[in-house]
Every structure is written in C-alpha cells, then in structure tokens.
Amino acid sequence: MPEKIAVPEYIQGTFVPLSHLAHGWEMHAAYPLTPAEERTIVREPAQAVPEAVAKRLAKVRVLVVPYLACSESGDAVSTVKPEGETHTAVWLEASDQINLVLAGRELNPHDVGFEFLATVAELLRARLAPVEMVRYGQLLDEELQRGVTGEIDEDALGAKQRLLAYQTWRRRRAQFDRYCDTSFVSTLAEYMHGLWHDVQIRVGPEHLPLPALRRRLELLAEMFPPNPGYHLFAEDLEAKLEIQG
C-alpha cells in the first residue's frame, strides 16, 4: 500500500475479511492486530449493537487502518502519522454496503471500539423515521421543562447550552432539532457502550442526573431492544436507580 491513498480509492481495493462479525458484518485490518485488539476494536462492540439497529444499516464492512489524514483535498488513509489534522473514523455508503474506516494506530483499542459505536449511532440517525425522533425530542423537552442542565457528553452539552443561550429557546425549532440530533447520537452511543460492558456513570452539574439518564436509556431499549444475553442495567445499578427515581 502507498504511504497515502484517498479513502474513496482505498475502499475500492479487494479485501479478505479478517473477521466475520455479528449481523453479517465484516472486518479487515491494514496492519496486524493482536486477538485482544481485534476483540476490543470491533468484534465485541459489534456484538453489542442491537439487531434492530443493525437491520437499519444492512451490510457494514469495517476497515481498520493506521491513520486517517484530513486535508482540503479529502480524507486519506495513511501508513505514517500525518502532520496535519486527522480523523478517527470516516464512512462512505455504497448501494450494497457501508464502508466504515477506523484509524487505530497509537489509539487505545477501547477508544476505537467506542468510535465504532458512535459511528453506528450517526449512521442510524440518518435512517430514523420522523416519528421516532419526535419521541426522543419530547423526552428532551420534558427535561428542559424540569430544568435539567446536564447532558450525556461534551458535544451534546455544547448543543444544549447553545440552545439555552436564547431566552426564547422554545421557539427556536432549528436549534432544538440540532440539539436533539446531537443528543440522540451521543445517548445511543452510550446506550450501546453500556451494553458492551459495564461503564462508570459520571455525576456532576454537567452530567445527566440518574433519573433522566434512566428515562433516556429505557426509551432507547424500547426502540432498539438489547440482544439476547445483554442487559441494560446491572443489578446494583437497578437498585440505585429505583431509589433515585
């Protein structure tokens, strides 16, 4: 492989799948991965993706590469560390499959695995029916009415703060929709993250209170049920949330 190749050109190559993943998805790596890296980067996260989510995406081919360079001429796969801006994930959709390219060199495998789930969440958002987003938007509106100021992550918090900067935020439909999109993608990624493995809940004024977090996750679990053998909450968290709720 050349030192740098444009992503659209790269995905046209012939790839022998390194792994056959859950949902009929495939994975190929452009550099050697240890068994532990392969499991953490994509195999286990893919297994945690609810089947109801996977069906919306159809076939996904995951291509793990060393680096993803970002430039005005477009994104490129690079075998050496780029000097400029980089991406952690890009994707191109074809008629028969989604090509999801993940950068893995010098990154924690768990972080790459979460980036995989975050990309799945973004891909799903584009495939939701308007009525599905209305349900999530209604939940956010209830949170705002109750004065919930925190959010699931920094991106969603920033979108929320930009919305609330307007005293007339209730009439700012475009800003609310942008906030709703960002919050949905971030929350869905964390929902699948929690299905993948136990996660630590962050507390504080910038984070969601436990009752609000529970309502969001329960809505997503209703819309996209966990696969058999996967559980939304650990037993000790269930007990804690019951008390808090």
What would the keywords be for this entry?
245 residues, alpha+beta, four-stranded antiparallel sheet, 48% helix, 9 strands, five-stranded mixed sheet
What do these coordinates show?
The chain has 245 residues and is an alpha+beta fold. The chain has two domains: 4-125; 130-244, no CATH class. Helices cover 48% and strands 14% of the residues. It is built from nine helices and nine strands. The chain has helices at 7-10, 35-48, 51-57, 109-125, 130-145, 154-164, 173-196, 210-223, 235-244, and strands at residues 4-6, 19-20, 26-29, 60-65, 67-69, 76-78, 86-87, 89-93, 98-103. It has a five-stranded mixed sheet with strand order 2-3-4-9-8, with helices on one face. The protein has a four-stranded antiparallel sheet with strand order 1-6-5-7. Helix 2 (35-48) packs parallel to helix 4 and helix 6 runs antiparallel to helix 7 (173-196). The longest helix has 24 residues, at 173-196. It starts with a strand and ends with a helix. The model has no long low-confidence stretch (mean pLDDT 90).
Helix-strand blueprint:
Blueprint: E1 4-6, H1 7-10, E2 19-20, E3 26-29, H2 35-48, H3 51-57, E4 60-65, E5 67-69, E6 76-78, E7 86-87, E8 89-93, E9 98-103, H4 109-125, H5 130-145, H6 154-164, H7 173-196, H8 210-223, H9 235-244
Parallel strand pairs: 3-4, 4-9
Antiparallel strand pairs: 1-6, 2-3, 5-6, 5-7, 8-9
Helix pairs in contact: 2-4, 2-7, 4-7, 5-7, 5-8, 6-7
**Reading side by side through the largest sheet, how are the strands ordered?**
2-3-4-9-8
Strand % is 5-15%
Count of distinct strands:
9
Uncertain spans: none
Main sheet properties: 5 strands, mixed
Radius of gyration: 19 Å
Write down the domain tally: 2
Gross geometry: globular
Order of helices and strands: EHEEHHEEEEEEHHHHHH
